């Protein structure tokens, strides 16, 4: 057992075509300590979402992945698809941005929580899986879980749907949770609840977290190590406090200046260019 | 309708009449019960909303999804009609406007939407887009379309030579600037910005916020700024109205609402906003200062 | 749920009433005087008046329409005295040309049309869905492009061209099938099957092409859905991802369209039945158009409308069973 849960080295993702390699992630390096929380921050087109899909081995058709992704000492890039599948959902779980479209409208949430459990654990009866699903829903504080387990996604509110997604990952007790913009589609009060829930689950299970977001304030609250990305490149990385108190890269400094604050000075928001740029 | 008979006001200190005054706005939507036997339900999206926008100020209407803020904006722009209540704009009853007066109202109140691309016709050049409001009004374009469009683009910080391009050739932030330029074309008195910076990346968002503030300083028009992001609202608002469940739960000056919120919902909303620790920000400013001094010393 | 069904039923009745009214207006306004036709060449004005009275077409429009409607539910009698003709409910009219109630004529021919429709429907559904799935799985590859070519051909060949060429090829040139001859299923099942094979194929080809395209598009679109990505992220096997998360959402819309298409076909396949000499409702309609036998044309029109409306209703009900979003309301 190593202290590093996830070690990424030289991760490069491209969509090669006639015009060239079209790199969307460019030789990315980072480590996630066991039980740690890593934030990957960037604006649109930074390659942060592609990074998460690359770790999961779920890149879209036509994508090419090179470099090394070591999870708990196992080189994921070397695994055949079938072996990778046993990691996916079981040891590495993923939460997506839009909980409504990420849940299948045709099946009850219980069925969708159970199917992951049943496909990874052999010899599980339906009844056992159902109990696991109900328990997982209770752990994410969905009231009346024994009844709600038979409800369909559209019968839940946005925040509750994201809880269902989290319950789905939780039922497998993964060692790593990758959350790609998990609160972007949610209202601010619901976002606060979901972030609290993620923190609570990490405290309970000791799972590591990779949080992918555009929101600097969110990563500042949730993660202890931060990776800043721009146009597929790693801009800088370091402990959260260092990134927020002493950013080295001009891009990080600009980003921090551009974030409107709820309780800091009001004035011209500083941007990359002197005025508001062209 | 009892349009016109308003509550007699107490003679107070001479306060400039507001540009816009909405009183007791209600908007109900019919929720279909389905078919011939179904009983239609009524859903009250806006429930007794009263607000004022004064000349040259920015009133921010904040709330979460389903709070009724966007419906309120559309009522005020007269894109939809209210179930009841009155809206007075620049001394005229908006509901009663017809013909020429309605035309004038439509150019005095302009909207900027959230998704810049879907609110710009992809088949029209920027020049055509930004001069369209004048064309609709059959008003002459001062100085000709080309020069007029170029001047507008310049004002919103875009390259004036790009007037012949199409929306798809611009980035999201630039497209939003085109939307703003189109609103400016008819010299409006009120611009309703409905989540106008919500879809933008943070660095672009900052640029557009700065632009909106600068334009207001220059032109003196008012904003009705609809947003869910409280941190953004705090950067731009003069006054804030907080909406929840179709009602305004709290109104006040920005610093009062943010500094000492009275309503429990406002407090909950403010508490939920994720924030970068102020002590980190303070440390960063110190480090920044030190860096700058070092750099100057090296020079 | 009961309320929903009641709602749909009531809506259906209203639509059917309007269909009746509309059809009636068309035939009332546009058709030449049937009494003149019935009476023949050497006809006195008195005889025409007599026939008109018997037919009831001397009455004003609304009276006629009312008689027609009551005839549907309670039956009616044409004329009076010993020559009176009884038309039992549901009376769709009486064909004086063939001296038969339209309802009876339809009932006699319904089994043939139903056989044609059911066989063709099974064929096109199987071929369409299978072709669509194969196309979707092999998107952009040879099989996909090959199927795309086939569907294009299938959609562009007119029914009668296909029918005549098939007949010529399979019966005349190759002799694989005997010349069609009316036999009952119980008498000679093989011969019966051979008789219906060509009409089934002819009707199925165009539809199968449409269903192939539809299935392909639906499956490809569904595979883009976020919940399919979720299913893969859960580590489900590709088979499970396909079966559970791609097929069901992709095939649900097919059910809707299938119900409508099938109902439409039950009302008779005009060209196919005529070409193959099958004595179904479609052929009857074609014949009555040439003979200008109005009660029959009107009866068939109403039947087709009725089937489509009922088919629509069945599809709606089926949909509530398939799609939970329709079945259980939101409680969010």
UniProtKB/TrEMBL annotation, chain A:
One Pfam family in the UniProt entry: ABC_tran
Keyword annotations of the record: ATP-binding, Cell membrane, Membrane, Nucleotide-binding, Transport
Family: Belongs to the ABC transporter superfamily.
Any single GO CC term annotated in Swiss-Prot or TrEMBL for this entry: plasma membrane
A GO BP annotation: peptide transport
Keyword Secreted: no
Lineage: Bacteria, Bacillati, Actinomycetota, Actinomycetes, Glycomycetales
Domain of life, per lineage: Bacteria
Membrane topology: Peripheral membrane protein
UniProt main location, coarse: membrane
Molecular function per GO: ATP binding; ATP hydrolysis activity
Name under which the protein is recorded: ABC transporter domain-containing protein
Domain (ABC transporter) ranges: 6-256
Compartments in which it is found: Cell membrane
Methyltransferase among keywords: no
UniProtKB/TrEMBL annotation, chain B:
Residues covered by the ABC transporter domain: 20-270
Listed GO biological process terms: peptide transport; transmembrane transport
GO molecular function: ATP binding; ATP hydrolysis activity
Keywords: ATP-binding, Nucleotide-binding, Transport
Family matches, as InterPro entries: AAA+_ATPase, ABC_transp_ATP-bind, ABC_transporter-like_ATP-bd, ABC_transporter-like_CS, Oligopep_ABC_C, P-loop_NTPase
Family: Belongs to the ABC transporter superfamily.
Protein's name according to its UniProt entry: ABC transporter domain-containing protein
Naturally occurring in which organism (per UniProt): Glycomyces algeriensis
From TrEMBL, chain C:
Gene3D superfamilies assigned to the protein according to its UniProt record, in alphabetical order: MetI-like
Keywords noted in UniProt: Cell membrane, Membrane, Transmembrane, Transmembrane helix, Transport
Recorded GO CC terms: plasma membrane
TM stretches of this protein: 9-30, 114-137, 157-177, 197-214, 250-276, 296-319
Assigned protein family: Belongs to the binding-protein-dependent transport system permease family.
Compartments in which it is found: Cell membrane
Biological source species: Glycomyces algeriensis
Membrane protein topology class: Multi-pass membrane protein
Name of the featured protein: ABC transporter permease
Every ABC transmembrane type-1 domain range: 110-319
One Pfam family of this chain: BPD_transp_1
